[in-house]
Amino acid sequence: MSTPTTLAEWLAHCERLHPATIDLTLDRVRRVAERLVLRFDVPVITVAGTNGKGSTCAMLEAILRQAGYRTGVYTSPHLVHFEERCRIDEHSVDAHALVPHFEAVEAARGGEALTYFEFTTLAILRCLSQSHLDAAILEVGLGGRLDAVNVVDPDCAVITSIDLDHMEFLGPDRESIGREKAGIMRPGRPAVVSDPQPPRSIVEHAESLGADLWLFGRDHRYTAQQGESGAWQQWSWSGRSVRFNGLAYPALRGTNQLLNASGVLAALEALRPRLPVDAQAVRRGLASVQLPGRFQIVPGQPTLVLDVAHNPHAAATLLHNLDQMGFFPRTHAVFGAMSDKDTTEILRKLAPLIDAWYFTDLPTPRAARAEQLDAQWRSLPRTAGAAMRATSSTHSSPRSALDAALAEADPTDRIVIFGSFYTVGGILQEGLPRLGAKHLA
Length: 441
Hints:
Shape: globular
Number of helices: 15
Number of strands: 17
Strand content: 15-25%
Structural class: alpha/beta
Strand order of the largest sheet: 4-3-2-5-1-6-7-8
Largest sheet: 8 strands, mixed
């Protein structure tokens, strides 16, 4: 077999190396990382959690960039292009720039059967480590303790919200899952927790390890102020010795973003001796941060909402955020998800708000079929609200599901596209759509 020469060829090579897509252990990754002499000489912030990781990474990146630092971010999965997983100075790297790092991992692995995620993670970590950064921000893929990202010792660990997801790998409850997430902590180094009610296992692990634990409500907190109209207009944040007043809401929408932002500011305070950040950088960063697919509202007729909510906790947050948007005569939902997700509970949470469902297949064998999702929805009790009169249909792709929704929607309706990254990515692969209802074309 010829040696791969393009990023697409290397990714295909990675898919063939290991029989499993997930094989949680650090042993293989650590051995290859040692052969690569992988190291970071700049502050590293590692972010783990069930939901809010991507938003947290994006806010850290935006604020540090506004403070004048050169940043590198590793995040996964991607929406459309693999290169999205590696950002330098807020821009995705070019595909050809990653090729030498895939070659280096291949040369160093010495026959180790790395999974796709392990191989690609090592390649991107090597790319970032050689990019002359001022700070590196690394998002954990799954769990924490045994995730490939954890081969790098972070200078600060951030743990976002903890809820039930990937239970076949991480354990059956929040305590078990929290224990796995806490594995990114290091002795004597700051560990920031954004979850207002963290599992006890996180606190116990930090205490036994001797990590510098920053808890929400004790070491960092926020207060929000309402204007005369009753709308939330500003918020203030306080940490151990730093306070920011009169902050505008983050550009990322959703009430959960203030919890994420509180953890971000705590991490920046903890790293202040090495990465000082002033109030104006905080304000500009929060005002300019962007992250596709996180309660992303696209104006149009009808309005479009994109969200990668793919577990019950994220679905509950999406429901709350949709409920706060204002009045829409009807809400149409395009939904596709992986088969290992608790899709019945996701559907149950969103059902009271959805008038028409458009279930979609996704281009991966891991995905639930549209017919399965439809059957799960039909098995739910029709108790109140939109659920009693809702309709459903099945489609072969997210784009065909959106086309069907658009054909049925009035200009004043809204269409919500949510679930897997494949669902949202299937819409964005041809660019951000601007919708016009059929009778407005």
